[in-house]
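ERR on first pass: missing label on line 2. Operator R.T. fixed the label and resubmitted. Corrected input:
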Amino acid sequence: QYMQNGRPPIQRLLVVANRLPVSANRRGEDSWALEVSVGGLVSALLGINEFETRWIGWAGVNVPDEIGQKSLTLALAEKRCIPVFLDEEIVHQYYNGYCNNILWPLFHYLGLPQEDRLATTRSFQSQFDAYRRANQMFADVVNEHYEDGDVVWCHDYHLMFLPQCLKEHNINMKVGWFLHTPFPSSEIHRTLPSRSELLKSVLAADLVGFHTYDYARHFVSACTRILGLEGTPDGVEDHGKLTRVAAFPIGIDSDRFIRALELPQVRNDIQQLKERFAGRKVMLGVDRLDMIKGIPQKILAFEKFLEENPNWRDKVVLIQIAVPTRTDVPEYQKLTCQVHEIVGRINGRFGTLTAVPIHHLDRSLDFHALCALYAVTDVALVTSLRDGMNLVSYEYVACQASKKGVLILSEFAGAAQSLGAGAILVNPWNITEVAASIGYALNMPADEREKRHHHNFMHVTTHTSQEWAETFVSELNDTVVEAQLRTKQ
Ligand code: G6P
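pass 2 clean. output:
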């Protein structure tokens, strides 16, 4: 149906994610300011030309009135986005509650709510019901826009019910689901009261993808141990129906970063930063202010390093960009206070009249400022306690072609699987080890830095986000073809 001027038909790709790649701010009754958010998923999919992409998701704003909903729908259509409208109550129960207070911590091995978070567990059932309702709302929008031949790609832990909702409506829909977080050991997953429902729903998809082989393996064992199904080398089998399960490690649009470094504005920023930090080594952390990122542990390791190495105290600075996130969830509010307290203490302890050891910023930087900062950094510290992949580590490597700085990387980030040979891998819980690695990185000879950087740079520039998206979608197409062949036999 999309055949144009004799060219082969272009397949439509419906990308369904909780958050749209643009967030909306209301300016008037029917006027909107749209801000493009360039995260990993967005940049991955912007680069693929083989498909005609439509996004379906939440615009991050409450729009209770019909005029607003109509005008926002029109404004988003220009960006190829289709909104799902969620009211305040459902956002509270589904997004703040079930997604970010239950699934997110659990999938990152922080467990289910305990003690002061216990109050939340009492409303577990209502949050779970809201989660199902929200997933059905996403499904309704997909169903309304779906055309024969489309591929539907569902994303992340917010939408684990979506594959089942979609298949119940149309068994022939091609449905893929990809998880951007870790999938934990089945021993962790089995603590979740709704463990079976979620697994069964995900299995309704034709193809299920994870960042690493380990996450895929954990998912398959959860299905075998909790649901009693059979795990095969290709996935999970349920009474003759196979759901393919595989690893598809995401990447970044590395060219975009490399090109940015050539822009006059960025070169200028780089020069200014070099002057500003002349005589000091620059260490950098860039994280959403999330408990999985291990920011307090990282800062404590830096404190230990300064404690043990007085000669470095005025020769190194740690810049920590902590991007506020999910600020309505109490755990995140507590974390902000905790980080501020530690930073204040260390700056008080080691600061002088002219300099402080930690520059802590509670905000995001625009893309160009971030590239400049990456380029002048001597040592990047990515010390997540758990992380699905972590693309900050990739972005840093992409911007280091001239400096060849060192990456200290948590062994619990998915990226450790791909950048492990070039980075210094650490256990972020072991503050002594991280402090020692900081010393090792700051003193590393140029030839070792070069070798390590080369390894990582090759990886980051060849395993790009475009390649990731194309591989997933082409496998999804193949999976469906295979299934059709099997039913014909
Ligand atoms: C993680 C999740 C994404 C999410 C992002 C930002 O990377 O995997 O699905 O969009 O965090 O979080 P937010 O809650 O602001 O969408």
